[in-house]
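Here is one chain, start to finish.
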Amino acid sequence: MDLLDSILNAMDAPPAADERQKTMIKKQREMMERMQNKQKEELLRFRKYVEERMGRFAKDDRLCIEFQPLDKVHRSVIHEIAENGGFIAMSFGREDVDRHSVVYKKEHAPGEDEVTARRNGDGWNADIAKEYAERRRDRLAQEESDKAATSEAGSSSTSADLNGEIKPTSNYKAKYAHLIGESAALQAARKTETNQSYGFVPSKNKKDMRSIEQTLADIQAKKRLRLAQQQEQEQEQVHQLEASPSAEDP
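Its structure:
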């Protein structure tokens, strides 16, 4: 401990901050606090504004309300208030450029055409709705025509296969001429016969048709027969041993 105390005492103390540095640090801290309080107050005012606007929106006949482009923090406030109020909030546009939020009533949720148009940056009004409806009808008609053409081609090919004669694309005789010769006939074909010298057992005779109970009974019967044979052999050996001394006596 004495050595440690001597080392600590020999070390230089940290430089003391002068009054000017202390004042600067204090001002920076106060400025940060004021900025944070200002942001909190601004978010509270914005939240109150959104709540009042959605309250009016719930009572009128408008289908949706659109907010100006905002950052992610303000859009999150809009989505939170809309969810709590029973509305549908969606954001469209590019981030940090024109990303904005649109709030809908649940009974007037946006359709596929409106969502596509807003995502494409076209906005939404009566003219745009008419244009996208025409596009959708043309697309559906094209899909139906393509489907009908595909089904018709498939049915025609199927009927041709059923009614017409199917012709092979190549002649197998020419392909296998080196194996079967130029004139393939029944006389040239070899008939495969079973070699009787190796025996022939039908496959049905190779299958065990017995039940499990019958198989177990047969196994037990074989065991009993084997035991009986062993006992008979042992008895014969005993009789032979008993008879051998009597034969040797004078």
